[in-house]
């Protein structure tokens, strides 16, 4: 059974760096074809893809946020970490991580709400 | 720039009636490696994460009721709920994958309600 869980601060001040961790089980990020992505959703708004990392450490970023994002993985800990620099109140959102396959996001974590204020 | 449009923003359908949601891309999402369209549909209920319903434009995920179906190719896609049930009240999102450059894009969402 695949599960993912996001963790990180609930409140961050503007201009600070936000670090979120996705801890997963039921699959390995060292297996060919596996990927984990980050998606966010501001309150009452649509989903927005942020970043994705593949089993081979290939990384992809949303063009609009690329300069502020870094995604890394720790295969031994079954974790993926997303770092966002210079946060702003518009970054207030629920942040999800998800198992990515078939160019879609199969299994999602419950999400973690982050407020920038 | 890639332009993606999901419509309508909301719709109200009577129980047992058909609901149709559209997703249009300014560029083809046909994935040449498998000749399939990189288009997915998600359902999101309040307070829950999205749930993948359909991948590759028309492949229903395991456990998804067969009243949900996806169709379309190239740039125009449709999610159909053939006979709306009360538990289908939710937000629905399409999501496209573009290969060059690699990018995942979500539609703005469609709210489905009971009339």
TL;DR of this structure?
The complex is a heterodimer of chains A (117) and B (115). Chain A is an all-beta fold.
- The quaternary structure here is heterodimer
Backbone shape of chain B: globular
The largest β sheet of chain A comes out as: 7 strands, mixed
Low-confidence stretches of chain B: none
Give the % helix of chain B: under 10%
Mean pLDDT of chain A: 96
| Total count of helical runs of at least 4 residues of chain B | 0
Tally the helices of chain A: what do you get?
A: 0
Explained architecture:
The complex is a heterodimer of chains A (117) and B (115). By secondary structure, chain A is an all-beta fold. In chain A, 0% of the residues lie in helices and 54% in strands. Chain A is built from no helices and 11 strands. In chain A, strands 2, 4, 5, 6, 9, 10 and 11 form a 7-stranded mixed sheet that branches. Chain A is globular. Chain A starts with a strand and ends with a strand. The relative contact order of chain A is 0.32. Helices cover 0% and strands 54% of the residues of chain B. Chain B has no helices and 13 strands. Chain B is mostly beta strands. Chain B has strands at 4-7, 10-13, 19-25, 30-31, 36-37, 39-44, 51-55, 59-60, 68-73, 76-81, 90-98, 103-106, 110-114. Classes of the chains: A mainly beta (117), B mainly beta (115).
How is the secondary structure organized here?
The complex is a heterodimer of chains A (about 120) and B (about 120).
Chain A: E1 3-7, E2 11-12, E3 18-25, E4 35-41, E5 48-54, E6 59-61, E7 69-74, E8 79-84, E9 93-101, E10 104-108, E11 112-116
Parallel strand pairs in A: 2-11
Antiparallel strand pairs in A: 1-3, 3-8, 4-5, 4-9, 5-6, 7-8, 9-10, 9-11
Chain B: E1 4-7, E2 10-13, E3 19-25, E4 30-31, E5 36-37, E6 39-44, E7 51-55, E8 59-60, E9 68-73, E10 76-81, E11 90-98, E12 103-106, E13 110-114
